[in-house]
Amino acid sequence: MTEVRQKMIVANWKMNGAFDMAYSLLEEVLDGTRNLDRVDIVICPPYVYLHYVAQLIAANPRVSLGAQNCSEHSAGAYTGEVSSSMLKDAGCKYVICGHSERRQYHAETDAEVARKTVATIEQHLAPITCVGETLEERQSGKTRMVVERQIDAVLERCGRELIDQVTFAYEPVWAIGTGRSATPDEAQDVHRIIRTRIGGLSERAAASCKILYGGSVTGDNAAAVLSQADVDGCLVGGASLKSAQFIEICKAAV
Ligand code: 13P
Predict the structure, then answer these.
(1) How far is Cα 163 from Cα 209, in angstroms, rounded to an integer?
(2) Residue having the nearest C-alpha atom to atom 2 of ligand 1
(3) 1 lies in a domain?
(4) In angstroms, what is the span from residue 142 Cα to ligand 1's centroid?
(5) 133 burial type by CB count under 10 A (0-12 exposed, 13-18 middle, 19+ buried)
């Protein structure tokens, strides 16, 4: 039997926002997606707005809260860090782990990303773990190698017991914030590589794990990428800050 994976659209606000912005954006998004009950919508604001956004979305069970990062540690002398149990306290259901901006600007390694993924699961939160190659890696034919290496670190750490709790996001670094999205075929090719790799550990997880695409997704290109067999949703940056765009992307997922 083929597994039906409900599509998921995740808004990654990155380091953008303010209380009034969160209020007006969410008011419009909640209104514009009111009748879309066959898509999971996740809002990932900066840490300081988590609690506030949790209150704004509280009456909307279709919409969940996510964080953009978490510490791999559970508590202790880690100034400036936030643990997965704190994120749970703040109302989060999801945590983005290993976004390429964390890997690039905060030197997060494959192993650290894998540990964060497990720290998230241990708090009964759902990790959205990101992988993706740079432009240079793609141009030198290393896409498969890089993505498989990033995936393998997570597979190894999670093992067969935990792997089906991970949602993966393929975000080619060259497509993030550049306006140059991967073509639907390019996305599908890598999503298939990822699903096949997961299947090497667990056929069950390969069938059930969601794999999201991220990188310059807009209201105009979302439907095409979402129509691909192994694309189960989108992780949206810039367009998630514009209500009309984000609503269009959510509609394309239904
Ligand atoms: P953009 O949609 O702005 O390209 O960002 C993608 C991303 O990094 C989402 O996590």
Answers:
(1) 8
(2) 237
(3) no
(4) 22
(5) buried
